[in-house]
Specification:
Strand order of the largest sheet: 2-1-3
Structural class: alpha/beta
Radius of gyration: 13 Å
Shape: globular
Number of domains: 1
Order of helices and strands: HHEHEHE
Number of strands: 3
Distance between the termini: 20 Å
Number of helices: 4
């Protein structure tokens, strides 16, 4: 089971089906291709560039290749994002901003 499927499973178990989950990069960090952008990378950049003062929280399971790729493509977004590693109901209850 990949990270995408694992996150969908966890969200289902804690009855949080309203949170979006996106497919990410499949390459290793050293193989990031600026020409090929995954759904996860694109949504990170798009959400960070919105004119919204609320913080953006990104829940990650496993490697943070999508974050690295998004920041490489658009360095200005780095200060607008907070990462959450792992995923638990307590984290979701704690966050009062955007979860992508």
């Amino acid at each position: 089971m990949d990270s995408y499927d694992e996150i969908k499973k966890v969200l289902s178990l804690i009855d949080k089906k309203d949170i979006s989950v996106y497919k990410g990069d499949i390459d290793e960090i050293g193989l990031i291709n600026k020409e090929t952008v995954s759904e996860g990378v694109r949504i990170i950049i798009d959400e960070a560039l919105k004119k919204d003062e609320r913080p953006i929280y990104i829940a990650c399971l496993g490697a943070i290749i999508d974050m690295a790729h998004a920041i490489l493509l658009c360095p200005d977004i780095a200060n607008k994002i907070s990462l959450l590693f792992g995923l638990a109901e307590e984290i979701i209850q704690l966050v009062d901003g955007n979860i992508i």
